[in-house]
Structure formats: structure tokens, C-alpha cells
Design a protein that fits this description.
Length: about 260
Amino acid sequence: MGTFAISGCATGIGAATRKRIEADGHRVIGIDLRDVEVAADLSTADGRARAIDETLEACGGTLDGTVLCAGLGGHIGKNALVASVNYFGVVELLDAFLPALSKGSDPSAVAICSNSAQLVPDAVETPLVQAMLAGDETEACRVAEEECTGQLVYMLSKNAVGTAIRRRAAQWGEAGVRLNAVAPGPIQTPLLQGGLDTPGIGDAIREFKVPVGRWGSPEEVGEVIAFLMGPHGGFVHGSIWYVDGGADALTRSDSF
């Protein structure tokens, strides 16, 4: 079976995805702060470099798949940290893993976006997203701290991730590696609970309308990721799949 690298796999969607991938018989190299094969802090350049080096050493330079789940919520009160983990902690690992993935068997990659990524008008034109897409972490962190609320940083960082995935479709397709993202809505994870426990943000989450009438589970997102990573998703590339109980359709019915 294959070898997969999964970041943010200690809890939440990442943990559920790891369990689902391992159920198919694959080997998983977990990347997180602790209790995994590769312990690294993805909020820093040095931590990301360590994660990349140790993962590539562990897989012997060949990966069959990667899922980038590591992320922080806007409620934590550290906007620069959210910007660094949610964007740079995704794209730097993706790009560094591409050569190893190109050597794999039917390789694919999935990143975690968010159904909130399209809620800011002209998000891609904002200074934060522009700094992220330009690879300027110093400027992105400055804008995040000085010009944004925590929730705005979260939404814009996820918009930047989605844009980065779409922009890489041609290059990754030519390399023989499929690349997609999932955009979850409210999923019952520690990240969501942190938002629920934060005054103001918690009320907004509770009032958020989900057409199916409930929040999702990490396992449901993991199933979609497993489909995208596997052979049945073989013609899906450069796409962002909403796993949000219809919330995006409710808020943006005419935009798709």
C-alpha cells in the first residue's frame, strides 16, 4: 500500500482522516506539534523546514499522497500565528512534497480550505491574500496583526489556500499529481469548540444556517478526502469540494 503524509493529524479532521487512510492499509507519517511521527511547529519557517526534511527522510523521498489539515481558528487572538499556519504551513509543505509525490503511485494531495473562504467580497484583492500569494510571510503577518480581526484572517487565509490550489492545477497535473481541496462548514472539532467558547464568535457560529439542520463530523470530511485521494476520484483535479451541509449553496446560491 501507499505512504501518506498528513499534517494536523493529532485532532479533528486530521485525526479522522488519518484513521480513514490507515483503514485502507496505507502507512501514515503524521505531522503535528506532538504525539506524531514528525513533531514540528508549522507556524515558523524553521519548523516547516524540519517537518519537510523529517517527512522526506521518513518516506525515503517517495510519497503516494499528502493531506494538509493543520490550521488554527481566528478566535485564538494571535492573528500572525493564524496566517502563518493556515497558509504558509500548507503551501510550503505542498510545494516541497511535490517531487516526492511525483514519484509515487497514483499520487494525490488534498488541502483544507473553508466554506467561509468566499464570504469576503473580492478577497483575492485584499492586502493579506496578496501578501500570502506573493509568499511574503513578514508582510502577511503585519497585515494580519495590524489590519484584520481574527475571523477575517481565518477567512482570508483559507481563501488564499483555495486560490493557491487552483493556481497550481496546471503544474501539478503535468507532474502527474492530482491536487484538490475540501471546504468544510461547521464541523464538530476542537477548533469549532474554541470558536463556540469565544464571546461574539460563538453566537455567530450558532446562528449560522446549515440547510441539513446539523453540524458535520470529522469522519464525514475524512470520507470525502479519502474519495479524492483514491482511484475513484481519479478525474478530480484543481477542485474545491464543499462539505458543509449546503451552507455555501444557501449563502451564494448563484455563485459556483
